[in-house]
Design a protein that fits this description.
Number of strands: 7
Radius of gyration: 23 Å
Strand content: 5-15%
Helix content: 25-40%
Oligomer: single chain
Structural class: alpha/beta
Shape: globular
């Protein structure tokens, strides 16, 4: 058996089934412990913010444009499991100022050592064809299935991070981003903060483009955009927090991971949109229309995004909102006002609601 054949056999027969078990266990751990994980993560950001502010006070660090969380593959192999936290100016890697911190991500890689050990034992059955570095390279290619939980945690923690006094005191560039990825390699933006707010005309130009256009990972927070018509747009991971979006139209949109916390969305129209991981906490959604909206989550056996964070309507005002034919069954309605909100009778057991909330809902026969 040649090396490529041996590696394929080892991956399919041993690695893949064991990887699925560990990802499932990690998902369970994440969901059960996410509040504690958020607290620990926010503390690491607080310490990093203190370090940045100290450097800025001493003239050693200009305004920061990026806060980057970098996976160090060597740290996974040696068991330290630390992410590197890097602060950069708006020139990013081309600014020669060093400001580093770290985050202990051991919880996310708790299943990695045992899997590596198992594969190392199994590769010996191929009698001289595979060696230890082959197994390491094989497993390092699968790290995304572990790091997806880090990205989810960062997104979940952002509302707490931006409220930190230490974070608010930082001197930031006109456009500031928090990114997660690999060291000086591919990364994704999980938070964007424009220090100079967009003008309404520019925002409408970006959001009211022709159908099937996209405007992702952007921020339109703290804006007045009433009667916006952003239909058939890809707006995933865009931030609309604390904005006035009354009577807005977001029909047939991709709204995965969007943030709407504290926004005015009375009579907004979300029909037929994909809302996985959308955050509507503390929003005014009176009369909003969620008919045929979908909270579809990943059905992949290894990749759990979207869907890890869930749809959140906690403490939102949903009086008179329409949820008929919506598939948002895993949404959280903790503390939400559901007076006269419309749901189909057949969905009564599909939503996790309190008894007082169930009594307030207008259950409608199909």
């Amino acid at each position: 058996m040649k090396k490529e054949e041996a590696l394929r056999h080892l991956y399919e027969q041993v690695c893949l089934p064991e990887l699925e078990k560990r990802v499932a266990a990690l998902e369970s751990f994440f969901l059960k412990n996410k509040e504690r994980l958020v607290d620990d993560f926010v503390q690491s950001i607080r310490q990093m913010a203190i370090k940045i502010k100290t450097m800025q006070d001493h003239g050693a660090m200009p305004a920061i444009g990026f806060l980057h969380f970098s996976l160090l593959r060597t740290a996974v192999l040696d068991g330290s499991n630390r992410y590197l936290i890097e602060a950069y100016t708006d020139k990013w890697y081309w600014e020669g100022i060093e400001c580093f911190g770290s985050y202990d991500a051991g919880w996310a890689f708790q299943g990695f050592p045992s899997l590596l050990q198992l594969l190392d034992e199994q590769r010996k059955k191929y009698i001289g064809v595979l060696d230890a570095p082959d197994v390491e390279r094989l497993l390092l290619k699968e790290l995304d299935y572990f790091t997806q939980f880090i990205s989810a945690l960062v997104r979940l923690s952002i509302p707490e991070v931006v409220r930190l006094p230490e974070y608010q005191q930082l001197d930031k560039a006109q456009r500031f981003q928090i990114r997660v990825g690999e060291f000086k390699d591919i990364s994704e933006s999980v938070y964007v903060e424009d220090r100079l707010p967009r003008e309404e005309q520019e925002a409408r130009r970006l959001l009211e483009q022709a159908k099937d256009s996209y405007c992702t990972h952007e921020t339109f927070a703290n804006m007045r955009l009433r009667q916006l018509k952003a239909n058939e747009m890809d707006l995933r991971y865009t931030d609309f927090s604390r904005s006035d979006l009354e009577n807005g139209e977001f029909r047939h949109c991709v709204l995965i991971g969007t943030r709407w916390g504290g926004s005015s969305l009375a009579n907004a129209d979300f029909r037929h949109s994909l809302l996985a991981d959308a955050d509507f906490r503390q929003s005014d959604l009176r009369g909003a229309n969620f008919s045929y909206a979908d909270g579809q989550t990943s059905d992949d056996r290894l990749y759990r995004q979207p869907g890890l964070l869930g749809i959140r309507f906690d403490e939102a005002n949903l009086e008179g909102a329409d949820f008929r034919h919506a598939r948002l069954y895993k949404a959280s309605f903790y503390g939400a006002n559901l007076h006269q909100a419309m749901f189909l009778e057949r969905d009564q057991d599909r939503y996790e609601l309190t008894e007082p909330q169930r009594k307030e809902i207008h259950w409608i026969a199909e």
